[in-house]
């Protein structure tokens, strides 16, 4: 069961990498020039997921081969770390928005001491 969940994450990660990773921009553009099928395929993550699923199924059938298992684990870790990073960013943005609301609602006649805090520096950036 864990292997199947890992392969679902691998499939999603492959689609994201193939469709959106900047490192593959030039390769992706050259492949798109081959014909309309590849252009449509690489412009449509939903369409590409079918083929990525096929690749994942082939990888899944060979998970007992250690290089295949290591590759799948690396790709799954990559994608899960991206998801955690996105969740952290959303929480941080929500926290900053809450702090900004409190700051804007604070009385205006409060004097500052002259030094700026790390938080104020982040806000002004």
Topology, please?
Layout: H1 2-20, H2 25-32, H3 36-43, H4 45-60, H5 66-105, H6 118-124
Give a description of the structure.
- The chain has helices at residues 2-20, 25-32, 36-43, 45-60, 66-105, 118-124.
- The protein has 125 residues and is mainly α.
- It has one domain.
- The longest helix is centred in the C-terminal third of the chain and has 40 residues, at 66-105.
Q: What order do the helices and strands follow? A: HHHHHH
Number of domains: 1
What characterizes the major β-sheet?
none
Number of strands: 0
Principal-axis shape equals flat
- Total number of helical segments? 6
Q: β content, as a range?
A: under 5%
Helical/strand content category:
mainly alpha
Integer average pLDDT: 84
Secondary structure: helix percent = over 70%
- Unreliable stretches, pLDDT < 50, 5 or more residues? none
How large is the radius of gyration?
22 Å
User: Termini distance?
Assistant: 46 Å
Features:
125 residues, flat, single chain, 6 helices, mainly alpha
What would you say about this model in short?
The protein is mainly alpha-helical. It contains 6 helices and no strands. Helix 1 crosses helix 4, helix 1 packs across helix 5 and helix 2 crosses helix 3.
